[in-house]
Write a structure and sequence with these properties.
The chain is an alpha+beta fold. It is built from 4 helices and 7 strands. It is globular.
């Protein structure tokens, strides 16, 4: 893993870079119809959403969001196709768990796809339910929880 990666809070001028990340991951991990939802999420400037930087470029984004005192949501975790397989997703999860524990939350809710659910399961999340075609045709929604 390159030690030059860093994180910072999402800013409105990151929107185009984040949408490029979405496009790189579609349709492999996201359904095309989700792009408008992601853009709307970004427009709301969500507190807790971060971008991951490498050599000055946005290579990933994710967020531990929500105001609930017990549970937060892991939202829109994206990693550039150019750096997938380098362990950046694991760095996101380690960071998410550290932030959650520091905030004294009970756990993290994750709405994954059937394609990303195994990654979250590997990190300790358990499946609560599956909604066939929940994200679009052929993209099944898996609701999960990760207890801290």
């Amino acid at each position: 893993m390159n030690t030059a990666i860093s994180f910072r809070c999402y800013a409105a001028n990151d929107k185009d870079a984040c949408l490029r990340l979405f496009d790189e991951n579609c349709p492999a991990f996201f359904s095309p119809n989700e792009r408008a939802d992601y853009a709307q999420f970004l427009d709301a400037a969500p507190s807790g959403y971060e971008v991951c930087m490498l050599d000055g470029a946005v290579i990933g984004a994710y967020g531990l969001v929500g105001a609930d005192q017990a549970w937060r949501h892991l939202n829109w975790i994206l990693v550039s196709a150019k750096v997938q397989g380098l362990g950046i997703g694991s760095v996101f999860m380690d960071r998410t768990i550290r932030i959650g524990k520091a905030a004294n939350i009970v756990g993290i809710k994750i709405a994954a796809s059937h394609l990303s659910a195994p990654f979250f399961a590997k990190n300790g999340a358990v499946q609560l339910q599956m909604i066939e075609n929940g994200w679009g045709i052929g993209m099944h929604r898996i609701d999960m929880e990760l207890k801290l």
